[in-house]
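User: Could you go from structure to sequence for me? I need the amino acid at each position, not a summary. Structure tokens:
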């Protein structure tokens, strides 16, 4: 930061304003930052959920650290979905050191946003809140501050600039509905959910992703406000699903350049049994318009807006897609459906030392290709019975004791029935699908690894 200040002439906290015909007073940069901080600092919240974690082959309760910001006087807080994901209790620390609990109003995994309501009890006094700025007016090079609780430290501020205002990170993530602000203001674990603030003291983004270096990403405030409005209205974000997979006409990531068209977007894939498949949309078609509204997906940064519009189409009402196929225009009728859950439920088969999860077409497309409705082994504990039997994360679970299981509720009922049967040998026969090939495995659960841990302690 010292190098940055030296380059920009910010030594001693001042910078000379560019002179025109007469000199002007120097701008006290320290005062600008201090005033901006004072406007939003009291609205900063240290968020400490207790969450369930299934990623190590067993269900565990873990303490999570994150951030949030108060946006209404009655205690509505914005944070990240990944901060409160699978939370069983949400604790918050306010600017005056008060510790209060919070209730989850709703969250949206696909934009990584969550809305909380502070549980204030009989205290009806209005809380300090932060205001939003228009993120569409933000420009690269503007100074920003990232506020939050990095590494569990309750209150922290880092200073930087906006490096990019339309960064697309949806290539290999599920965050495909918006572009992002990139900043060199330090964003570390624990900053997630905290505000990115401009020099006027207004929120222009919610901090979400950091690399631990000088690259961090924030959700633009206009996206945040839209998602928060939807969550407060419906408790979730309601979207439609078409089954269309999109790719930019000029895709620098895959070196794909379609030069015979200057508008539209490439349909790179069509999900099986989807509205797009029913409408006979083909992979390789160019989508030119939706209900006569032109589509522009020449570059990857333009894809989120197209996906947003498709997701906002009314479910169960036909729309007209104008396509280009083999150089010729084609019109098709497509009927979007309401998008279901984007993540399946979990279950901890604790005595077997593994966790299972429902297959979801949005989160687990490679598994969904093989099984449209079913379960897969999410994680295997080491050491443990499942590991000793050779089970692996990613195995699709077809049957248990020759009984078909497709949901977390079904395997929970069968698992509890098997463990309650004290007359049976402590072994269970599992039918799996691994990399497209079926196999049978006998899982011996006679050893109690939890009991061994207690003995060792």
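Assistant: Here is the amino acid at each position, in order:
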């Amino acid at each position: 930061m010292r190098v940055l200040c030296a380059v920009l002439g910010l030594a001693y906290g001042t910078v000379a304003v560019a002179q025109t015909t007469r000199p002007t007073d120097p701008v006290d940069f320290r005062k600008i930052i201090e005033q901006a901080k004072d406007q939003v600092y009291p609205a900063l919240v240290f968020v400490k959920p207790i969450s369930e974690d299934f990623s190590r082959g067993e269900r565990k309760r873990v303490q999570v650290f994150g951030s949030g910001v108060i946006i209404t006087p009655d205690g509505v807080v914005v944070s990240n979905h990944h901060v409160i994901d699978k939370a069983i209790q949400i604790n918050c620390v306010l600017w005056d050191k008060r510790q209060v609990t919070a209730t989850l109003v709703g969250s949206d995994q696909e934009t990584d946003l969550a809305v909380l309501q502070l549980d204030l009890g009989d205290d009806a006094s209005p809380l300090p809140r932060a205001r939003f700025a228009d993120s569409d007016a933000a420009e690269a090079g503007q100074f920003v501050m990232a506020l939050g609780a990095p590494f569990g430290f309750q209150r922290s501020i880092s200073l930087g600039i906006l490096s990019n205002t339309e960064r697309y990170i949806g290539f290999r993530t599920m965050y495909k509905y918006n572009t992002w602000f990139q900043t060199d203001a330090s964003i570390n674990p624990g900053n997630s959910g905290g505000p990115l603030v401009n020099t006027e003291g207004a929120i222009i983004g919610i901090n979400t992703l950091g690399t631990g270096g000088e690259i961090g990403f924030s959700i633009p405030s206009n996206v945040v406000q839209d998602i928060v409005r939807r969550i407060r209205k419906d408790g979730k974000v309601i979207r439609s699903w078409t089954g269309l997979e999109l790719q930019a006409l000029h895709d620098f990531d895959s070196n794909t350049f379609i030069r015979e068209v200057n508008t539209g977007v490439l349909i790179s894939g069509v999900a099986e049994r989807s509205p797009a498949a029913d409408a006979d949309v083909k992979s390789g078609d160019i989508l030119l318009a939706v209900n006569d509204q032109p589509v522009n997906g020449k570059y990857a940064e333009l894809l989120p807006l197209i996906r947003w519009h498709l997701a906002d189409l009314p479910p169960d009402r036909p729309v007209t897609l104008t396509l280009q196929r083999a150089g010729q225009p084609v019109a098709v009728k497509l009927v979007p459906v309401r998008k279901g859950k984007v993540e399946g439920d979990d279950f901890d088969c604790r005595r077997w030392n593994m966790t299972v999860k429902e297959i979801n077409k949005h989160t687990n497309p490679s598994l969904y290709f093989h099984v449209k409705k079913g379960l897969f082994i999410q994680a295997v504990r080491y050491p443990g019975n499942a590991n000793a039997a050779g089970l692996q994360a990613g195995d699709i679970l077809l049957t248990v004791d020759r009984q078909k299981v497709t949901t977390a509720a079904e395997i929970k009922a069968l698992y509890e029935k098997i463990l309650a049967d004290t007359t049976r040998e402590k072994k269970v026969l599992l039918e799996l699908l691994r990399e497209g090939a079926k196999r049978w495995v006998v899982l011996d659960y006679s050893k109690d690894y939890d009991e061994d841990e207690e003995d060792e302690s």
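One structural detail worth keeping in mind: The first strand starts at residue 14 and ends at 15.
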